Amino acid sequence: MNAFDQLVTRLRKQLGGRKDVHVSVEEPVSATGIYFLAIARDGYVVEVEWQRHRGFGIAAGRELVFGSGVDEVYGSAESAFERVLGLLETSEATSSEAPVNLIDLRKLRGLLQKDVADSLGISKSGLAQMERPDALTAMQIDTLRKLVASLGGKLVLSARFPEGRERRIAVD
Amino acid sequence: MDRNKRFALFVQELQEAAAAASFEEARQLIESVLNGVEDRHSGVPFRPENWRFDGRMYPPQDDAERKSPIAGVRVFRTRGHRVWIAANGAIRITTARPPEERTILDKAGKDGGVCPAA
């Protein structure tokens, strides 16, 4: 049983008795393809996609736009399960604008720990330490800049003031 | 232009385009129409490796192909939708929200036939 099957099994067990919830599961032609799960209630839908090594991508709302990606990524069936139940409870729409932690950012980029560790010239365990949420508070800005660059991005810092002004802070 | 408007434009242009005569032609047609709309209106460069997060709409990829319940028709999943492509070039786009499946576009192939129903 893969991680997607685990999630589906848990959700079916949790939601099985609810007549207002409709669940649809779609498997890919190839086992390495993308698995899809859709859970709908009263015009609101949560979509979960899973692919080996990419984790669980989630998008939810009343309108899901054709051909676009996911808003959130979760590394385990357990965390995806909790998020799906939370979304069904609140009918909240996910957003690609919401902040993400460094692990989820890497997964959204579709990169493995090994890819990023190699790019930074560090070990996988070293990267795992850097990606821990509590590590960010003590991380040097230059280290964060290099980590973001290894994901293909550019670190941008800004300061927002009570009157609504926002200014970028030069970091390089 | 926001994504809902771009999607509506894609559907309109796909409906108005010349019909395809085969699966390969239909898939190429979907790609060229969608990429054209996105090149003109999304403001996001075409970088398929970024499909998961860059906000641009991308055509269905090979790894999103599902097991089809209809002989002679291949089906691809994309966010919120399914794209059905028949051997005669017919294209159907449906919503994927359970329990109902609503048809957004039903375009016949060059021989005039549409995708058979599931």
Topology readout:
The complex is a heterodimer of chains A (172) and B (118).
Chain A (H helix, E strand, L loop, with lengths): L2 H13 L6 E5 L8 E7 L2 E8 L3 E7 L10 E3 L2 H14 L11 H7 L4 H8 L3 H8 L9 H10 L6 E4 L5 E4 L3
Antiparallel strand pairs in A: 1-2, 2-3, 3-4, 4-5, 6-7
Helix pairs in contact in A: 1-2, 4-5
Chain B lengths: L2 H14 L6 H19 L23 E2 L6 E6 L2 E6 L4 E5 L7 E5 L11
Helix pairs in contact in B: 1-2
- Largest chain interface and its two residue counts? A-B, 32 and 32 residues
How many separate helices of chain B? 2
Give the SSE order of chain B as H and E letters.
HHEEEEE
Strand order of the largest sheet of chain B: 1-2-3-4-5
The secondary-structure class of chain A comes to alpha+beta
Instruction: Note the main sheet of chain A.
Output: 5 strands, antiparallel
Distance between the termini of chain A: 47 Å
Strand content of chain B: 15-25%
Shape of chain B: globular
The averaged pLDDT of chain A comes out at 89
Helix content of chain A: 25-40%
**Unreliable stretches of chain A, pLDDT < 50, 5 or more residues?**
none
Summarize this entry quickly.
The complex is a heterodimer of chains A (172) and B (118). Chain A has 172 residues and is α+β, with helices and mostly antiparallel strands. Chain A has six helices and seven strands.
Tags for this model:
heterodimer, A: 172 residues, alpha+beta, five-stranded antiparallel sheet, two-stranded antiparallel sheet, globular, B: 118 residues
Overview of the structural elements:
The complex is a heterodimer of chains A (172) and B (118). Helix content of chain A is 35%, strand content 22%. The longest helix of chain A has 14 residues. The relative contact order of chain A is 0.10. By secondary structure, chain A is an alpha+beta fold. In chain A, the strands form two sheets. In chain A, strands 1-2-3-4-5 form a five-stranded antiparallel beta sheet. In chain A, strands 6-7 form a two-stranded antiparallel ribbon. In chain A, strand 6 and strand 7 form a beta hairpin. Chain B has 118 residues and is α+β, with helices and mostly antiparallel strands. Helix content of chain B is 28%, strand content 20%. Chain B has a five-stranded antiparallel beta sheet, covered by helices on one side. The longest helix of chain B is centred in the N-terminal third of the chain and has 19 residues. At the A-B interface, strand 1, strand 2 and strand 3 of A face helix 1 and strand 1 of B.
